[in-house]
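Folding Query — how this chain folds
Tokens — whole-number codes for backbone shape
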Amino acid sequence: MIRVNADRLWSTLERMAQIGGTPAGGVTRLALSDEDKLARNLLRDWAREAGFSCDVDSMGDMFIRRAGKNPTLPPVMTGSHVDSQPLGGNYDGIYGVLAGLELLRTLNDHQVETERDIVLVNWTNEEGARFAPAMLASGVWVGQLSQEFAYARTDSAKITVREALEAIGYRGERPARAFPIHACYELHIEQGPILEDEAVDIGLVRAAMGQRWFTITLDGFAAHAGTTPMHNRRDALTAFAELALKVEAIGYQHAPDGRATIGMAEITPNSRNVVPSRVLCSVEFRHPQREALVAMEAALHQAAESLSARGVSAKVERIFDYAPIAFDAACLARSEQAVTALGYSAKPMVSGAGHDTCYISKIAPASMIFIPCVKGISHNEAEKILPEWSEKGANVLLHSVLSAAQEP
């Protein structure tokens, strides 16, 4: 039974981590940044050196292809993303891309000829850190989002996605449109503590939580901090503080599976001696049941409306609605067979995070494979995995993809 070259995989991870590397040992490699361009170029060069083609579509998605015997058959896909969070970790997303590259190299090493092509993909702007929403390009690729909508997204400097793609030379001519896929696998770090805590090698991901993202604008009235009595104030920041606690309560009300987060807030005018007139903030809800997400959104609107008692108006705009996902049983069965053959331990899991393969599952059979990460830490410079975890996940990916690629 063939296995990946674990040392080669680890060395590619270490080399890639130098691009956008931070002093604390993490990476900042935002989508369509100069660092993203360098990472893309390196991935493309590695692919071409191994004899694989590399095409880029109009959303900047990179498709690396290892040819099979029958190019008329729908290929097997694997991959993830190269972009990171600001001050993020070295393995989120990029591990799945480089493990995919390693499986292709391993098939070359052992001169394995597959029936179907195997396509390794790097999806653009999975994180949503620079351009919201997340999973932007994969959403366009499967037809859930329009390219016009995606191109018009802007970052904090008002640079559009289209402008950023052109600036780094990755706006391809090929339309960002799905082609038939036989099966799709994404290998990823868990981004949670369960696998490490339970000493389990592999998570077989059967489902993913739904998500709803909101932008909320709270409008009060700017006033002098020294001359305006407390009872005359329309303070947007204290209204925000009340809203934040109510959002937290919504998460607790939908425990144990509910998640409620405010990760971003901007204060205007942001001066120490002016009562704040506006707060712009994000709210994010996650839950594996659609009915719960509906209830959480309704509770958010009630919380926002209650702020009128403070003389503050609240505008709630939903910017992202991602339904809960159930992954494909046949894809999961191939991974389960690989785990058994390799002698690893595994458990079924639900992903609390969104991933590009959640979108792909809407148009093709798909599933995900998790490996542990130290203390469950992710989206943080302290994110770590062990080489043996990396190797085991890549071996399960190798044999999941190989099994699917040998099917007539």
Summary: The chain has twelve helices and 16 strands. The CA atoms of residues 290 and 324 lie 7 Å apart. The first strand starts at residue 53 and ends at 56.
